[in-house]
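Researcher: Here's the sequence for the chain we discussed earlier.
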Amino acid sequence: MVLFMKRRELYIHASYKGHIETLNGIVRTLSQKIDIAHKGNYFVASEKLLLHTKRPEKSNASENSHSGWKSTGIYPSV
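Model: Thanks. This is the structure I predict for it:
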C-alpha cells in the first residue's frame, strides 16, 4: 500500500511538473507576442498622433497635389 502511494505521488508530481512547464512555455510565448504587438502599436499610435497634430493645410480643395504632406514628412497611404 505504501509503495502504491509513493508511485502515485511521483506520478502526480511528474504530471504537475509537466503542466507547469507547459504553462511556463505558453506564458513565455504570449509575453513575447505582447511585447512585439506593443512595439507595433507604439509606432502605429505615434504615426496617428503625428497625423492628428500635423495636418496639412490645403489652399484649394480641388487641388490634388500632396505638397502639404511633403512638408510634414508624412505621406498618405496609396
